[in-house]
Amino acid sequence: DEQQYLLLNASSRFSPPQGVKLSYGTAGFRADASLLPSTVYRVGILAALRSLKTGSVIGLMITASHNKVSDNGVKIADPNGGMLSQHWEPFADALVNAPSPQHLLLLINEFVAKEGILMDGVCQAEVLLGRDTRPSGDALVDAARQGVTSIVGAVATDMGILTTPQLHWMVRARNKGIQASEQDYFEQLSSSFRCLEDLIPAEKSKFGRMNDKVVVDGSNGVGGLKLKDLGRLLNSLVIEVRNSGEDGGVLNDEVGADYVQKEKVVPHCFGSKDAGIRCASLDGDADRFVYFIVPSESNGRIDLVDGDKILSLFALFIREQMSFLNENEGIKDCHQARLGVVQTAYANGASTNYLRQLGLEVNFTPTGVKYLHEKAAEFDIGIYFEANGHGTVLFSESFIRWLEARTKEISSGSKVSEGGKAALRLLAVSKLINQAVGDALSGLLLVEVILQYMGWSIHRWNELYHDLPSRQLKVKVADRNAVHTANAETVAVSPPGLQEAINAETGKYHQGRCFVRPSGTEDVVRVYAEASTQEAADTLANSVAKLVD
Ligand code: 16G
Ligand code: ZN
């Protein structure tokens, strides 16, 4: 019939590369861009099927995040704006690795039957397409469009060049029936930012406003460009963007959040002239960010203010607002609102101690946004961050409704109580911070407004706690999947004896902590070690790397 013909015809234009096996992994499919047209075409098919199955708009993003400019990748945003349901990942793997159009057709027919997807041409499907600034993006968007439209009744809407979180935000907004253009995104972020600024107590804001310039490394990618657009809507905050990609710099080449966080050195276009200034860095698709300080005797080194410290700042602020709510007599049932934080084993031990000292519940999940996000969604307010700077703050629907009801009562001209102001602030945070996925632009604005609220410099923030020295290594092994882990990757359950050997090494060091895990994005086993001195962390990491080898 028409459907089979369409699929066979279109898929014969995209032959898969020989001898390459791709896996959806933690971040979608990623490879050298020249290998990807058939993969992206097939993910277009998958996205259309997903849209039919869910009766909702689906997103398809073309990006390879912090990887080099010649790479690219593709990933799916589910109806709520989150990551593709893990339940569909095996289908994604099978689909892109099918050797021929006939195999492909067979797989699709089987899967459609199994999932009970109605392909009558009457049901409509829509997929929003986005891409970052990579030169290969244009052709890959076209491949995605052809994939989507090989399913009868499916349309592809090209949203142009976007950050990854912008596309996720748009998918979520569309499915909630909210306006979902880029302008709407900028409007929502800037207006909730202004709302938070207006709620800063006068006596607190003095210091923040004297010190209100932030200098941002855009990684020569999409994030810097979008941040400039957003910055034009904010007149109180000065955002200076460097490495916006407009001056010939190369995407992710000694710039960007991944580089800054891993190497702990200044990115291009930053140096001793920036000593003491508040600096931040975005990754290539702007779903991660970190802050940093250039010390006065820098020699290229930086003081990193990482995802753990961003999490700590957010947690401190939100906990304070929750306590204002609780102290307010008019509010009865809100003490039931649960605040939880979620980290991975990579979180610096000093941050976990700090959060626990605040009395917060700290949860751990394996690496990968989908795991952290899922856990954080269990709370009324769930804050998650990876040390690498990916994270956000999730609000439950019921808590938002409660806040909305609470803030409606108070907007009638009378003097607003502290509890009422706290409710207004929390509601504004829920609009500012991306509810779909970690978003460097909205996260950066939340950091900025909290620092203003606290009246803090970046130095004061950085002093919340002192990171324990740590070391990360990667080990090339014959088969990284021989290593299996449990307890949020903190325990190696195989090969046998490995964990016992790691324990024996770790026990030799004061405040020692160490774990190994197979990377989800590279063919290596990663080693992380922490101890009370840098030398000790280094030796511990090195000796455990030998155990893995
Ligand atoms: C992916 C993950 C990121 C994680 C990283 C770890 C998403 C969207 N991204 O980039 O959260 O930190 O993988 O890489 O989930 P690794 O497995 O190679 O250490
Ligand atoms: Zn990214």
UniProtKB/TrEMBL annotation:
Function, as annotated, reads: Interconverts GlcNAc-6-P and GlcNAc-1-P.
The Gene Ontology terms for molecular function here are: metal ion binding; phosphoacetylglucosamine mutase activity
Which pathway does the UniProt entry assign to this protein?
A: Nucleotide-sugar biosynthesis; UDP-N-acetyl-alpha-D-glucosamine biosynthesis; N-acetyl-alpha-D-glucosamine 1-phosphate from alpha-D-glucosamine 6-phosphate (route I): step 2/2
Where, in this chain's numbering, is substrate bound? 386-388, 517-521, 526
Provide the Phosphoacetylglucosamine mutase AMG1 domain boundaries.
180-290, 306-456
Pfam families, sorted: AMG1_II, AMG1_III, PGM_PMM_I, PGM_PMM_IV
Q: What's the protein called, per UniProt?
A: Phosphoacetylglucosamine mutase
- InterPro entries according to UniProt: A-D-PHexomutase_a/b/a-I, A-D-PHexomutase_a/b/a-I/II/III, A-D-PHexomutase_C, A-D-PHexomutase_C_sf, AMG1_II, AMG1_III, PAGM
What EC number(s) are associated with this protein in UniProt?
A: 5.4.2.3
Asked if the keyword GTP-binding belongs to this entry, the reply reads no
Q: Keyword annotations for this protein?
A: Isomerase, Magnesium, Metal-binding, Phosphoprotein
Write down the chemical reaction(s) this protein catalyses.
N-acetyl-alpha-D-glucosamine 1-phosphate = N-acetyl-D-glucosamine 6-phosphate
Catalytic-site annotation from UniProt: 65 (phosphoserine intermediate)
Q: Which GO terms describe its biological process?
A: carbohydrate metabolic process; UDP-N-acetylglucosamine biosynthetic process
Could you give the cofactor binding note from the entry?
Binds 1 Mg(2+) ion per subunit.
Q: Which cofactor does it need?
A: Mg(2+)
Please report which protein family the annotation says this sequence is part of: Belongs to the phosphohexose mutase family.
In this chain, Mg(2+) is annotated as bound at 65, 283, 285, 287
